[in-house]
Every structure is written in C-alpha cells, then in structure tokens.
Amino acid sequence: MSAFASVLVMALAFAQVPEEPSIQKLFEAGHYGPLLDRVAASEAPAPEDIYLAGQASRRLDPPDQVQARNWFNRLGGDDADFWTFIGRSANALLGGAVAEPDAAPSEPDPDQAVGHARHAVELAPEAFFAQYHLGFTLAETKDYAAAAEALDKAITMNPTFAYAHYYAGYAHYQTKRVDRMANSFERFLKLAPDAPERPAIQALMRSIRR
Known about the structure:
Blueprint: H1 3-15, H2 23-28, H3 32-41, H4 47-59, H5 65-73, H6 82-94, H7 110-123, H8 128-140, H9 144-157, H10 162-174, H11 178-191, H12 198-209
Helix pairs in contact: 3-4, 4-5, 5-6, 6-7, 6-8, 7-8, 8-9, 8-10, 9-10, 10-11, 11-12
C-alpha cells in the first residue's frame, strides 16, 4: 500500500469515529445515566458538569435526591465563589445543607433557595449558570414573572442552552404570554430534539394553535 493510500485509510477511519456528546447534550437528551457515569469518571469535572450531574440525579426515575445533594455539595469552595451559592440554593430546593453533607436532609426551603440564587448572581452577574439557576429556582418556587425575566436574561448570555428556553417557555405560559411561550418552546425543541419533554410540549403547542 502506498504512503498516500495509508494516510487516506487512516483519515477515513478517524472520520468514522462519532464525536462524543457533551455533558450538556447528554442532559438535554435525557441520557442521565451516561451523563452521571461520565462526570463520575472525570478526575476534575467542570462545575457546570457537576451542576448538571446534580440536576440529572433529580430527574432519574425515581429521583435520587441523596446523589443530587452529593453533587451539589461539590460546587464551589468558599463564599467568594458563585458556584458555592448555586450549590446551596439547589440543596435548599431539595432539602439538606451543603455544609453538612452527611446530615439527614431538612425540608425544602424555597426562600433560602431563592436568596442563595440571587446572591450567586450578585457575585457573578455575567455568569450564565448563575442567571439560569436563578430563573430555574424562581420557576420551581412559582414566581413565574420573575422567573421569565431572569431566564430571558440568561438566554441573552447563552442562547444555546436548551433548558433556559424550556423554563422560559414554562414561565411565559404561566404568565399568559402565549406568544413568548411559543417562541421559547420552539427554540427548545430545535436545540433539544430528543428531550424527554418533547411530546408534551408538541401536544401543548398543537392545542394552542387550534
């Protein structure tokens, strides 16, 4: 085999290797088990991957809140790090405290969850995940008008994170902004075609268009 042919064969073999999906794409496709395995196997996972591992644990069937708390406990390191307060906020939504990872979980504390999320934004106003988590937390605590505002701002920071559009759409739906809801959900479906929520959103969109 000529040198050129050898190079060509190697190039074709390399081209046929599928690209490994990112942690974000695994999350958006609902592949929570592979996501958790990947993050657990990483020696130094990025904080956004740890955050998504915690959120993925919440989405398991049944949800694994203990595992979720363990992931959120790993976020940040001190009170100058906005990820610390994202972790505390996420754990306040679940119950349990970041400072006491071995303690029995307490009851969810929505006010504390929102307070920690707001402090994360104060520490890092330009950080997408701080803004996104604030919007997510406000939606979880049913403050939909504030959630819509926070999530719309997060989308301007990073329009490629599908679940920012999903929760924005949900918040707009709850506040009767059907036009903005439709735009958000359409973007979500485009970014996350395999998302577990896809059938329900498509059904909702069909009912509204009638």
